């Protein structure tokens, strides 16, 4: 089990430390960890957010554990040199097109939800976000209009193969969950979304056991706070999935809790929290490492088939939250290290 360890920027290194301590506590045999530079730290060290060395390491590794990228001191750089391009570059270079973002309300945290406790109590959903296409990867640039105005543009597009493969992932996920799939688009306005909807409907013929519905993204954002319990699996494009998953995180208490797995047709997966580098709190040791640690659990499950160990970690995280071991993001006083300690204590 060769794992590329990319801690990245901001709180990335702090939360990664805790995830590695948790993995260590499991005493897994045959674990090889290879740290490498990524994001703003890589730019400052070697002039590129995704150095060649890092990319080749990731191509060789069996899995990638990824912290966070984003550094305000890089905001004025040309876009291809910005830290965010590292994660986009990895997703694209490794063909990681399927991003799984589960969100579940833990009973112990029901008062922490941005929603009323009784509304939030029902949340147990999985967002399947397409990760290799959409407006993220289309042609983009700055130009000047005929009348001399500055104009920015980003092309949004999906081809049918891209939609079909993510639809299959989502239908299969629904089959082993609650049997319900909600496809989110903006087909009332966008051609990209019309194609998306058509292809999802075509694909549904192979999954008669899954109940499929379609929802416009604006309505989905509203339904997610009105009655989130209606969702089981949600499948959507890159941009809508980015937005809805941050929203879902606050519905279950904190963005510091949501993990993700990015998978492709190859065997290598990338595992990262859905949150960013949080420069405002970086270096203070107060970040919540739960999302990072839960991402390591997803890695054990999806890349290494270690379901039992994955569940152990997930249960340990649930148990410490249950015991009131909460970070500042959840109104508690425990720091990053203490949360890591508590999780490890649950494990041994
Ligand atoms: C995420 C992040 C990234 C994205 C950024 C860091 C490029 O917000 O993983 O949700 O937009 O996909
Ligand atoms: Mg995001």
- Report the count of strand segments: 12
The largest beta-sheet arranges its strands as: 2-1-3-12-11-4-5-10-8-9
Q: Give me the number of helical elements.
A: 12
State the end-to-end CA separation: 22 Å
Q: What is the N-to-C succession of helices and strands?
A: EHEHHEHEHEEEHEHEHEHEEHHH
Task: Explain what you see.
It is a single chain. This protein has 348 residues and is an alpha/beta fold. 40% of the residues lie in helices and 19% in strands. The protein is built from 12 helices and 12 strands. It has helices at 12-25, 40-46, 52-60, 84-93, 117-120, 160-175, 191-204, 217-226, 238-251, 290-302, 307-322, 336-347, and strands spanning 2-8, 32-35, 63-68, 98-104, 124-130, 140-144, 150-154, 180-185, 211-216, 233-236, 259-263, 269-273. Strands 2-1-3-12-11-4-5-10-8-9 form a 10-stranded mixed sheet, sandwiched between helices. A two-stranded antiparallel ribbon has the order 6-7. α1 runs parallel beside α12 (336-347) and α11 (307-322) packs across α12 (336-347). It binds 3-isopropylmalic acid and magnesium ion. Residues 242, 246, 274 line the site of magnesium ion.
């Amino acid at each position: 089990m060769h794992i590329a360890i990319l801690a990245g920027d901001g709180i990335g290194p702090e939360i990664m430390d805790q995830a590695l301590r948790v993995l260590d506590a499991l005493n897994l045999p045959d674990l090889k960890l290879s740290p490498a530079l990524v994001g703003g730290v890589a730019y400052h060290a070697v002039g590129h957010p995704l150095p060649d060395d890092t990319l080749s390491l990731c191509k060789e590794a069996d899995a990638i554990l990824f912290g966070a990228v984003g550094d305000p001191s890089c905001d004025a750089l040309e876009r291809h040199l910005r830290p965010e391009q590292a994660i986009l570059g990895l997703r694209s270079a490794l063909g990681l097109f399927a991003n799984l973002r589960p969100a579940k309300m833990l009973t112990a945290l029901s008062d922490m939800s941005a929603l009323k406790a009784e509304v939030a109590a029902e949340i147990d959903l999985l967002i399947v976000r397409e990760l290799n296409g959409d407006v993220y990867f289309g042609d983009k640039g700055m130009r000047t209009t005929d009348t001399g105005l500055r104009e920015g543009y980003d092309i949004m597009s999906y081809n049918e193969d891209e939609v079909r493969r993510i639809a299959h992932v989502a239908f299969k996920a629904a089959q082993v969950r609650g049997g319900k799939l909600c496809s989110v688009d903006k087909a009332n306005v966008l051609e990209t979304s019309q194609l998306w909807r058509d292809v999802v409907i075509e694909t549904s013929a192979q999954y008669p056991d899954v109940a499929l519905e379609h929802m416009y993204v604006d309505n989905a954002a509203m339904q997610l706070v009105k009655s989130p319990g209606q969702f089981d699996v949600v499948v959507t494009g890159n941009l809508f999935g980015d937005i809805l998953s941050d929203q879902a995180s606050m519905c279950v208490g904190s963005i510091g809790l949501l993990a993700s797995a990015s998978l492709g047709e190859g065997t290598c997966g990338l595992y990262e929290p859905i949150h960013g580098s949080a420069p405002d709190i970086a270096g203070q040791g107060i970040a919540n490492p739960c999302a990072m640690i839960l991402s390591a659990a997803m890695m054990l499950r999806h890349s290494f088939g270690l379901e039992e160990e994955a569940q152990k970690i997930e249960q340990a995280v649930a148990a410490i939250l249950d015991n009131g071991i909460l970070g500042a993001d959840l109104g508690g006083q425990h720091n990053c290290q203490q949360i890591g300690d508590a999780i490890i204590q649950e494990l041994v």
